[in-house]
Amino acid sequence: xxxxxxxxxxxxxxxxxxxxxxxxxxxxxxxxxxxxxxxxxxxxxxxxxxxxxxxxxxxxxxxxxxxxxxxxxxxxxxxxxxxxxxxxxxxxxxxxxxxxxxxxxxxxxxxxxxxxxxxxxxxxxxxxxxxxxxxxxxxxxxxxxxxxxxxxxxxxxxxxxxxxxxxxxxxxxxxxxxxxxxxxxxxxxxxxxxxxxxxxxxxxxxxxxxxxxxxxxxxxxxxxxxxxxxxxxxxxxxxxxxxxxxxxxxxxxxxxxxxxxxxxxxxxxxxxxxxxxxxxxxxxxxxxxxxxxxxxxxxxxxxxxxxxxxxxxxxxxxxxxxxxxxxxxxxxxxxxxxxxxxxxxxxxxxxxxxxxx
Amino acid sequence: xxxxxxxxxxxxxxxxxxxxxxxxxxxxxxxxxxxxxxxxxxxxxxxxxxxxxxxxxxxxxxxxxxxxxxxxxxxxxxxxxxxxxxxxxxxxxxxxxxxxxxxxxxxxxxxxxxxxxxxxxxxxxxxxxxxxxxxxxxxxxxxxxxxxxxxxxxxxxxxxxxxxxxxxxxxxxxxxxxxxxxxxxxxxxxxxxxxxxxxxxxxxxxxxxxxxxxxxxxxxxxxxxxxxxxxxxxxxxxxxxxxxxxxxxxxxxxxxxxxxxxxxxxxxxxxxxxxxxxxxxxxxxxxxxxxxxxxxxxxxxxxxxxxxxxxxxxxxxxxxxxxxxxxxxxxxxxxxxxxx
Lengths: 357, 340
Prior knowledge:
The complex is a heterodimer. By secondary structure, chain A is an alpha/beta fold. Chain A contains 13 helices and 14 strands. Chain A has helices at 48-55, 77-80, 99-109, 115-123, 139-151, 169-184, 197-203, 221-226, 243-253, 274-283, 298-306, 326-331, 350-356; strands at residues 5-14, 22-32, 37-41, 63-68, 71-73, 84-87, 157-161, 189-193, 206-211, 214-220, 232-236, 258-262, 265-269, 290-293. In chain A, strands 6-7-8-3-9-10 form a 6-stranded mixed β-sheet, sandwiched between helices. In chain A, strands 2-1-4-5 form a 4-stranded antiparallel β-sheet. In chain A, strands 12-13-11-14 form a 4-stranded antiparallel β-sheet, with helices on one face. The radius of gyration of chain A is 24 Å and the shape is elongated. Chain B is mainly alpha-helical. Chain B folds into 2 domains: 2-40 and 117-270 and 331-336, no CATH class; 45-111, no CATH class. Chain B has a two-stranded antiparallel sheet. In chain B, α10 runs parallel beside α13 (312-336). The longest helix of chain B is centred in the middle third of the chain and has 38 residues, at 165-202. The two termini of chain B are 27 Å apart. The chains are: A alpha/beta, B mainly alpha. The interface between A and B is medium-sized, with 31 and 28 residues.
């Protein structure tokens, strides 16, 4: 089955007088398969929202191609827009209208039956608050209204920018179940841009991570995390004073093995397998009290891949993420990260400024 | 059609629309009530008698007038008034009337004030005024509708639903023009009816013959077109500035300093007909059909000076050109610029 979304070499540069141009998108590639919940991740100012806005025809791009349902957009967007539901950026509505009227006007404008309004209000849990004007809504309620708006059309592709933003824990749980039900039971393709990485890890089947307008990695969430885990072991011994001796034993036993003492434990890298550590230390007369394979979560993988892991005494600046070489970005296989240096030069531009605000 | 209906509903449901709608309806009703309350069909017998008594009392204290009334040959014998009998106004006057007119005697009407609302003479101008105000209000409402959608993020939402920007903009303009036309028709008809009732009750209707209808309808129709143009202008300015305040600022700025600029130019430049720099002049020509501007600097004892005539056709070209220019700029801007 062809991908629902295909983006290739997308470029967008913001030019302003007396300032350096800002390359918000620098040859970005993205593919989203049908019937999946796809996470679209990246640090602030990495081009996520710009990509979604370009996909929906809100901004013009300077290069690259985009296809949705096989149709080239934005030229053919009017032909496929009835199959797309979207919320881009923070949900904003006309504050004096009620939630119900907001949805009714949109439904009426697209010739949708009135019953859809009540159905989506029920679906997002806004039935009781539908009569109130939007100005009295909390951020979470506005978020629910935005998702309701995106669901009105019963879309086959749902694009949501930060859908969990402002939601309470019950709301996040409900949203996760709703999106997974839509994708796995109804066959809706869901694209979610989010910074809540634990949520993405639970919610998404696949994901793409971008940095500075280019793709760093894509693939299934499980594969990407697995590809960056399991390389280190945490070792504890009954006598913490024996840890330096244990480290020395491991390092001398096999070339390429690393062992570092961290407080009351030893972190071992490059070991062929856990059993080898047990055997090597036992042969040196050191017996283990604990041996744990360290698994990474999405957050640590994300920070590692994007080069935005905080350093003691330093603040990570907007735009201070890995710069992916163009050739590397194009040739990277799914799930394989691109090794690239961290460029500490902060970027400027509309998206970066927006993120700073 | 669905989008058009939704846009009309969006305009109708706005709070500002409701507030201005109520204010306009109340204004028309209030104006009619004021007209009816200050208009009378003529003074009562008692009012006339009281005024005559006051006039007589004043005349008694005026020796010149008293002498004039008592002496039929007053003008002939008094060298100060010898010119009176040669004045064309004198011909056919009774002697007392001539004394009141030339010597300055008081008359009953000097002590009584009556106003009779004449529908035939005054209603067209009142209705035109109401349509102009409606146009101004619609200009504000259309700019506010577009500006508020940009600043609230509603425009981006709508563009996600309707990515064909030209169709979206055209529909929004169409809805605003429809709302304006409906408001003009409703308020003009309401004003006509209420003023006619006021004239029937407390004033005089006059002769509403064929030429009256033709002239009045022409004036009102042209003013209605002006209101539509103002609506397009307001929406276009808001589309260009993407904020109500920008459109409002441009409009208010011109309304406030437009004439000031004309006066400054006319004072500092030796320019003929500086009034032609003011849009008010062209608007006046459009509504009334013709405006004559006088060049006072070229006026001599022998010559009346140069005159510039602006017809409604010329005014229509200029005003239409301005609306078209901003409309095209707004369309280009909406089509080309990113939705921030």
